[in-house]
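In response to the reviewer comment on reproducibility (Comment 2.3), we provide here a single inverse folding case reported in full, input and output, so that an independent group could reproduce the run without further information from us. The structure tokens appear first.
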């Protein structure tokens, strides 16, 4: 069996060829029979997403790579199975829609939306053990592997199947909500503007909404109607960390891009539209890169202070040998204090090569800016997040490249996990509503404010 884009040059690929490579962050399940049973169940279950949707997203990402659209990707650091619930899903969809409305208005470009949703259940951890209330326990690795509760820290293969069901139930509700008009541009004020209490932010948002309403009524008057006004696309994504889950959902399916006269089958990962390789698992000769080079989905790769410039081109050549524009999104995450010294060389390595204008450059201003404050609470400063984003925008402009998107950890709820923003949250406020089980997320106000700051960059 060979993969879809290997051109006969790279070694044979198969959905399980990653198993012969060294691997990081890989769980050792003690009960192999139970693991086999779960994998068998996953093998039988239908795809969660369809190749047509995957191909559609790749076409949108090609537009992003070429500077014609902007990519907004966001959601929780770690989704819990408990987040598979109507209000949690709706508030996240609404926030992503509100932010994209602001970005459309600001950047004057179409916005492609991807949720870190419906499958973001596995987390890389820096240590296999952690101390909880004085007890040494196996670290919480995400709901797909073990439970957060101290009594549920053993790896449980049954969670693989539960992850599938929570992922499909979440995506089912996303589809239902979108199809039922949650995103209808004719009623943008129903998108939950009530929670924006800051009068300055609210006035700015109303200005954007009024602008869109005026445009909409103008289109209506001149008779320009389109289904596009009544619904939007929201694609799903997660870190492709747990290959025991990704492999059985990898399917050889009809390739919608092949002509009817010459039908072709291609491998797709059907667990999400978009998957990314994390900062800890992108080693060239390791299992994750081996697995990801064989699937046709658009892919992200996290790029940070530990990414050697020379690895970038090697990764692109391995993951995208045919140089499809939009296939690879480079998700940069250096930290506000490092981005200026590291990003320019990474941009030049790619943009001066045969991969020029093929990648989507996306800024993740979250993961390089995590810090601990008193009591060991993990937080991020809004000012650092904005600073990395602002520097990234400026550097791309100077280098003649295009910053095509942002990748954010956010939630539609009023959490108090990141410091600063227009509410001026300080260290004492962190304990008010800190509910993340993993990294600190932007709350709805902070996320919307960041969207306005990006919009301001484009409008000024
Ligand atoms: C993440 O996106 O949650 C994450 C762990 O990021 P990174 O791989 O960049 O550290
Ligand atoms: Mn995270």
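Designed residues, in position order:
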């Amino acid at each position: 069996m060979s993969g879809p884009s290997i051109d006969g040059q790279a070694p044979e690929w198969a959905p399980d060829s990653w198993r012969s490579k060294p691997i990081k962050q890989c769980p050792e399940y003690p009960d192999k029979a139970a693991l086999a049973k779960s994998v068998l169940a996953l093998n039988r279950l239908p795809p969660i997403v369809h190749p047509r949707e995957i191909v559609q997203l790749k076409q949108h990402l090609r537009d992003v790579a070429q500077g014609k659209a902007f990519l907004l990707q966001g959601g929780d650091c770690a989704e819990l199975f408990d987040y598979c619930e109507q209000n949690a899903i709706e508030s996240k969809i609404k926030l992503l829609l509100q932010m994209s409305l602001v970005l459309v208005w600001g950047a004057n470009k179409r916005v492609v939306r991807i949720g870190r949703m419906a499958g973001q259940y596995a987390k890389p951890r820096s240590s296999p053990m952690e101390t909880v209330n004085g007890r040494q326990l196996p670290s919480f690795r995400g709901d797909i592997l073990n439970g957060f509760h101290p009594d549920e820290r053993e790896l449980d293969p049954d969670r693989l199947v539960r992850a599938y069901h929570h992922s499909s139930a979440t995506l089912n509700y996303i589809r239902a909500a979108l199809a039922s008009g949650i995103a209808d541009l004719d009623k943008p004020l129903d998108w939950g503007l009530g929670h924006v209490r800051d009068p300055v932010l609210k006035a700015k948002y109303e200005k954007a909404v009024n602008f869109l309403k005026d445009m909409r009524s103008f289109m209506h008057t001149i008779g320009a109607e389109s289904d596009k006004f009544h619904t939007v696309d929201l694609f799903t994504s997660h870190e492709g960390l747990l290959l025991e889950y990704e492999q059985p959902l990898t399917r050889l399916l009809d390739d919608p891009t092949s002509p009817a006269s010459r039908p072709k089958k291609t491998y797709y990962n059907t667990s999400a539209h978009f998957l990314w390789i994390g900062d800890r698992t992108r080693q060239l000769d390791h299992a994750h890169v081996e697995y990801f080079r064989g699937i046709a989905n658009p892919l992200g790769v996290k790029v940070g202070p530990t990414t050697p410039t020379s690895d970038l081109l090697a990764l692109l050549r391995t993951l995208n040998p045919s140089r499809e524009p939009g296939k690879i999104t480079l998700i940069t995450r250096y930290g506000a204090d490092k981005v200026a010294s590291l990003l320019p060389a990474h941009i030049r390595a790619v943009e001066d090569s045969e991969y020029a204008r093929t990648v989507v450059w996306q800024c993740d201003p979250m993961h390089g800016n995590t810090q601990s404050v008193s009591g060991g609470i993990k937080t991020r400063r809004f000012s650092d997040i904005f600073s990395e984003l602002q520097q990234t925008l400026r550097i791309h402009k100077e280098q003649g490249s295009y910053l095509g998107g942002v990748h954010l950890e956010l939630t539609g709820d009023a959490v108090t996990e990141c410091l600063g923003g227009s509410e001026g949250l300080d260290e004492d406020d962190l304990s008010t509503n800190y509910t993340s089980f993993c990294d600190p997320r932007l709350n709805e106000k902070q996320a919307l404010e960041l969207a306005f700051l990006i919009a301001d960059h484009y409008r000024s």
